[in-house]
Write a structure and sequence with these properties.
Elements lengths: L1 H21 L1 E4 L2 E4 L2 E6 L2 E5 L14 E4 L3 E9 L6 E10 L5 H4 L2 E4 L12 H10 L4 E6 L4 E4 L2 E10 L4 E10 L2 E9 L1
Antiparallel strand pairs: 1-2, 3-4, 3-13, 5-6, 6-7, 7-9, 8-11, 9-10, 11-12, 12-13
Length: 187
């Protein structure tokens, strides 16, 4: 009975190892997760591809969390793979029809909330958009830790396979530092 239990554990460990390694790719002799995001801002190329690391402090981006009516995309962009973060991009989309964001480009437009001409606080704006199902995007600049609400932009899936959780797409986001254009693949 113990041999059977040990054999089952070894087979399970081998299966998990194969799954993990097959979701990775090697670059510069370092193993990275296959999911990646490449973007350009003012002529500077940025990338987000997380080195393979399992632990309590590991954050794997880019990432995509989706259901029928909402999706959240996150990416932490650096000058090089696994480098010091420069920008954290978050896109939150809400749609009226199930899975609509997979088949149609989605526009992101800043909306004015309230009576004041003053810009609302980041938290107030994102909470308002979330409560009212309004799509929005934010960009956190790590140089000054300023979280900025994107004024306008677009987000579009080029291909997708929901069963395999494989997605590719493009985005354009306009904010105070320029226009961030990018493409991503989530595997």
């Amino acid at each position: 009975m113990r041999i059977r239990s040990k054999l089952s554990a070894i087979i399970l460990l081998l299966a998990i190892t194969i799954c993990v390694v097959s979701s990775c790719e090697k670059n510069d002799d370092i193993l990275y997760f296959k999911s990646k995001c490449e973007a350009e801002l003012n002529g500077q190329t940025l990338i987000d591809q997380t080195p393979f690391n399992i632990g309590p402090n590991s954050i794997n981006t880019p990432s995509l969390t989706a259901n029928e009516y909402t999706i959240e995309f996150e990416s932490i962009l650096s000058k090089e793979r696994g480098g010091t973060p420069l920008y954290a991009v978050t896109v939150k989309l809400f749609v009226n029809n199930p899975w609509e964001y997979l088949t149609q480009p989605q526009a992101i437009k800043y909306i004015k909330i309230g009576e004041s001409d003053d810009e609302p606080a980041y938290w107030d704006y994102t909470r308002y958009c979330h409560d009212n199902k309004i799509s929005y995007a934010t960009i956190l600049s790590y140089s000054d830790y300023k979280n900025e609400i994107v004024r306008d932009g677009s987000f579009e899936f080029i291909s997708h396979d929901k069963e395999k959780n494989v997605y590719t797409g493009i985005f354009t986001l306009n904010f105070s530092e320029g226009t961030l254009t990018g493409e991503f693949s989530i595997n």
